[in-house]
Amino acid sequence: MFVAYIRWWVMAFFVKNGSVVRQIWGKGDTILFIFAGASAEFALNKAVDWLYFTGRLPADPLGRLFSTVAYARRIVFAPIAEAHEAIDAMNHIHAALEASRGKAIPDWAYRDVLFMLIDYSIRSFEVLERKLTAAEKEEVFDVFLRVGIRMQLKGLPANFQQWQFMRNEHLQHDLAASHFTTDLYRQYRRHLGPIRYYLLLQTQILIAPQRVKHLLKFRNTSLLTPLLALYKISRKMSMDKLLKLLILPPAYKRQINDLDVVP
Fold this sequence. Notes:
Blueprint: H1 2-11, H2 20-25, H3 28-42, H4 49-53, H5 56-59, H6 61-76, H7 80-101, H8 107-128, H9 134-150, H10 160-173, H11 179-192, H12 194-207, H13 210-215, H14 228-236, H15 240-247, H16 253-257
Helix pairs in contact: 3-8, 3-12, 6-7, 8-9, 11-12
């Protein structure tokens, strides 16, 4: 019995085959939408000073995007044991950062990041693909809840309904525009250039919650909305990779090609 359990542990994946979470995190365009939304909300988070402590985020925001994608991929597409190793490695990095600064990252800041991944996973898939069922939303929630449990976070929601309530509370109380917001958007523009930066803003308008758009003084309607139908057609014609190369700087060509996992 014990040997059978060990075999299951080695072979079983953290996210089961056929899961909608694998569909979401296996497509490059969905991932880019997730991080477009997250990049808007990161800039407003009251704990954003932690991301500035090492200087890596403002120095290379796109590099941070792809390194975060790599960690997420390790978790979503790995066997349970390897996924746990990836989560433990993240904990180790955060612990070293806390030791360097001499101050603990608050639990609510960790929860905020986890909640963002749940929310923008759902929002991005629904914008680019279709509406998720209630069961599929629960599935997305369950995957990231297990990540939070492995990280030993306190105060996690017990179910999707409780997460919705806590997520709304976070949006109301944990976000504020600050000088970090202004500086981070300046870095986005510097690294992307004016045209790609404009596309980022329009994507954020399309994907971000109303509270985020209000704090960033965004309009309510994205100019990308009428272009979405054309983009979906381009995917069927296998032209979406070309569009991704146009959207992101050439220096990240290899990382862009690696974004797509699910055919």
